[in-house]
Amino acid sequence: MKNEKMIVDMNLGDRVKKVFYLKEAEFRLRRDGRTIDGFLRISDSSGDLEAVYWGLTGQKLEQVEKMQFAMIEGQINKKKSSGQMQMSITSIENVPEGISFDDLIPSSSIDIEKVMKEIDQKISSIKNPYLKALLHSFFNDKNIRKEFKIIPAAKKLHHAFKGGLAEHTLNVSRICETLCEIHPRINRDFLISAALLHDIGKLEEYQLSGTIEHTDKGKLIGHIIIGTEMVEKRIRQIEGFPEDLAIMLKHTLLSHHGKLEYGSPKLPSILPAIALFYADDADAKINGLIALKDENKNLNKKWSEWVWWLERPIFLADDEIIGKNEDYEENGLNL
Question: Does the global pTM surpass 0.85?
Answer without folding.
Answer: no
